[in-house]
Design a protein that fits this description.
The complex is a heterodimer.
Chain A: E1 4-7, E2 10-14, E3 19-25, E4 32-38, E5 44-51, E6 56-59, E7 62-67, E8 72-77, E9 86-96, E10 99-104, E11 108-113
Parallel strand pairs in A: 2-11
Antiparallel strand pairs in A: 1-3, 3-8, 4-5, 4-9, 6-7, 7-8, 9-10, 9-11
Chain B: E1 5-7, E2 10-13, E3 19-24, E4 31-37, E5 44-50, E6 53-56, E7 65-68, E8 75-79, E9 88-95, E10 108-109, E11 113-117
Parallel strand pairs in B: 2-11
Antiparallel strand pairs in B: 1-3, 3-8, 4-5, 4-9, 5-6, 7-8, 9-10, 9-11
Classes of the chains: A mainly beta, B mainly beta.
Chain lengths: 114, 118
């Protein structure tokens, strides 16, 4: 059974700082690893998706890496802004036959202070 | 363009009542997923549809939970004889993903239905 852990649970940084969020997973047989953002009272917004054959993906100030052998992924946010404040969730997509499911971590609550 | 739409946004029910939650996925999306998110936790998988076929319902907590997608578009999650532990946010997601060949397709989430059982 896949288990996903995110560290730290909460992070508070001053505006402009670069930061790294960590995600680890127990089952390396994933099809992809996804990072999401969740604002209070809202659903999830997909930020980056890394397929199992890839090592990293970049979008603007965001860069996500994937190391399947060690069961780890990181989300790097450059030059953080107050608008980046949200909960960040990582999830691994696994398969059991024809069934596919995302397993989520509990998230990292990020606060960027002006 | 239109995203995933869920209704109602909030639902309050008394213990023992039946509830029905609706999800309108993005048009053309083959796959549809339901998740349950408790306060302070990540979403937990409930069930997965590919078109009208329910391929995985292993995450449904009990036989009081039932999901359907009869025409391969709109889906309904029904909870019978609700209990207090059913209180959570129920999220729906859709995707062009159709198995391993679509592993580069992200899931698009609705804003969820916040269910409170009194």
């Amino acid at each position: 059974k896949q288990e996903v852990t995110q560290i730290p649970a909460a992070l508070s940084v001053p505006e402009g700082e670069n930061l790294v969020l960590n995600c680890s997973f127990t089952d390396s047989a994933i099809y992809n690893l996804q990072w999401f953002r969740q604002d209070p009272g809202k659903g999830l917004t997909s930020l980056l998706l890394i397929q199992s054959s890839q090592r990293e993906q970049t979008s603007g100030r965001l860069n996500a890496s994937l190391d399947k052998s060690s069961g780890r992924s990181t989300l790097y946010i450059a030059a953080s802004q107050p608008g980046d404040s949200a909960t960040y969730l990582c999830a691994g997509l696994n398969s059991g036959g024809s069934n596919y499911k995302l397993t989520f971590g509990k998230g990292t609550l990020l606060t960027v202070n002006p | 363009g239109a995203g995933v739409s869920q209704s109602p946004r909030y639902k309050v029910a008394k213990r023992g009542q039946d509830v029905a939650l609706r999800c309108d996925p993005i048009s053309g999306h083959v796959s549809l997923f339901w998740y349950q998110q408790a306060l302070g936790q990540g979403p937990e998988f409930l069930t997965y549809f590919q078109n009208e076929a329910q391929l995985d319902k292993s995450g449904l907590p009990s036989d009081r939970f039932f999901a359907e997608r009869p025409e391969g578009s709109v889906s309904t999650l029904k909870i019978q004889r609700t209990q207090q532990e059913d209180s959570a946010v129920y999220l729906c997601a859709s995707s062009l993903f159709r198995g391993a060949g679509g592993s580069n397709q992200p899931q698009h989430f609705g804003d969820g239905t916040r269910l409170s059982i009194l």
